Hints:
The complex is a heterodimer. By secondary structure, chain A is α+β, with helices and mostly antiparallel strands.
Amino acid sequence: MHRPRSRRGAALAVTVMLSAAFAAPAAATPAPTTPSTVTTAPDADAIADAAGDPVWRKLVRYVRPPLGRGDGHSDVVTDAFFLSERKPFDATAELRATVRALSAPAGAPDAHAACRFPARARFAKARLGVAPPADVQCPALEAWRRGGAVTGVSVIFASGHLSNPGSFYGHLLLKFNDGAAGLSDDLLDTTLNYGAIFPERENPVAYILKGVAGGYVSQFTHLNYYHHTHNYAETQLRDVWEYELDLDQGAVDLLVDHTWEMLGVGNRYYFMRQNCAYRVAELIELVTTEPLLPRSKAWSTPIDVFDRLSRTERNGRPLVRSVRRLPSRQNRFRETYRALPSADRRTARRVIDDPSRAAALAAASPVDDNAVGGGGSAAARIIETALDYYAFASAKDEASEPALRRPYNDLLLARLSLPPSREDSGVRADGAETPPHEGHKSSLIQLRPLYNSAFGEGVEIRFRPAYSDFFSLRAGALPYSELSILDARVLVANDDVTLRRLDVVRVTTLNPSETGLKYDGGKAWRFRLGAEARELACEGCTTGFLDVALGKARAVSRLGAVYAMGAARVRVGANNDSYLQVGPNVGFVSSDIGGVVVAVEGGAWREADGPETSAYARVEARLGAATRWDVRLKAEYETGVAAAGAAEGGLAISFFW
Amino acid sequence: MVFRMAASAAVALGALCFSQAVAQEDDINPWQDCGIGAMVFPERPVGAAISNIIWDLGSTAVTSKLSSPDTCEGERVKAALFIQRTYAELAVETAKGRGDHLTALAGLYGCDAAVQSALIADVRGAMASTAAAPDFAELDRSAKAERYFLDFDAAVSTSYSGRCAASV
């Protein structure tokens, strides 16, 4: 297991005190109500004082006013979340109304405010001594609490997925761990998921625009964990990471109760900031004093949350107790295939090519071999590897799935004819991969002094809010891929400052086949949209562009991947200076070898309706594997169309934050 | 909400009705009687924006041919939903002879840990027979999941009913 190092010793006095106060009744008695009724209503001053408590403000989703002036508000948009009539929102009025509602007679089961707002009830009891009547009955809340069986909380990260903009940065979930269940039974644990609610067949353009501009309401929903593991690891072939938090029972109970309050409660969804990372962080912040998202950023990414989680302490201990990984079905295949001895790998390829051979392989397997290492015979491991291959192939290529049913069944029958394995081979591959929080921080600032043969010396300043390129530390990310949003480069040269390049969106994935087998790997593709200098030689000649490429990549042992793509690029400049270019791109991207990554690319462009051609070549290397900085060398050459060709070289230093 | 409904129903019906519901539940095939076969899980939701999912174990997902809320909310139906959703994992793990999904499924049936190895061995045997049938390979996933449920359910009720709390 990965154990993140503790780097901060923040005091948690207030939260710990409240958490401990909350813990007492819940830990001792998971009953929905507290045992006594308040006899004296708290006075106005006490309520006003308690309403300023950070925990109360978190419970009612209080948002501070801009620059600290004027009234704050709650960003919840569901009226039923509020007990006070007062508009606009007032935290003190809401607490006053809550106290009044908690003190009301019990009424029907589940109807009392203590049933609807159990975390608020804990707060009111701890801070104001207010408790609901003893005969309040909350069977639905008790079911949610699972009779007090929830003893831990984990944060789940589903790694990024390039099929949809909403999945680019990965996804976050909160999982309630049932203490009565064993490790394997966590598939039945309850998970909290946050996302926008949108029409089933939403127009993609509307989806993006509304997602960015707050056009959707979003909320938490709950599902058993296995729905998500199946969806992510088995269907979308994404690795899933679990960060188990080190929380005392009082904090766990408080989170369980507060999430109950938040079910069915809507917020406005903003893709860049108030997204799943923001809301899950907000939940966990109820039991921490440190924010889990950097206040310095106007955007929220899951990686930022895990970075903060891994550096946060609670009660003097690291907040993250352990990290474990559930590999995708495809990665399970790759890892078991890689672990086979070379002779067995060759046999596995033959079985994958022709699964009808599996029965003969199983029949020839010596029975005694089944005891070797507890993991079954060589034949069993080979057939299991082939089964994993067909399982992920069926998920990856739905159109081919019917054709894969019979070979899959041959493998199933062959493996069933052999004794069961005594060890699970790599399903929970703890420690096998670098966890997401150990990669580069999500935002980049880069300075690159350079020399250009056409205009001389200059400095390129680059800013990228998120997220990655071929040189990024790839912890938890899709290998050989890049995903950048608003990646801007400004050139300072000859007393001028010009926009050299702006990738509004840049997505590239090489999808190399590691094994060379048919379904392992996919098409290499690139999509770029933005503006950039038309040629390397010129300053201030910015044009808009749309660049798409499609091709194929192949892994070269474990050294890296080579690729070849056909590309098309539309440039849109001023004065009708618009044209279409097409041409080939070929390149190589190395894997991380001792902290060094090298990428080489060459290509040519030809105007679709003219004779003009150009060519380019570039090489870039990253030196260093720190999470907060690196050094990059870059050299490139380009033949010109409008201007003469140019060569450029520079050394960049990058800072990640 | 699901739990709220289930709990309210249990309180209202009382112990006698609850017993009747259990007896009925043991006779049903959740694919045929609870509409599990017609369920469409959101296999490829749109990214992070996936909130309009209301599926939950043994509850709101069961929508069509619903004979009554009680017959379609027991442990067997939860097990059936689990199998319908994770048949791909269960098939591979059953072939291998172990795995988290197999353990979770035995847990849903309330089987104690001591019988799990023997139960899995029996399920492997049943699956080998079922999968060897000429038409099995070409069945779609839902139909295979139903066969798997019938095999698992039969294995539990035949040999382990005293060791698995959710069986009769």
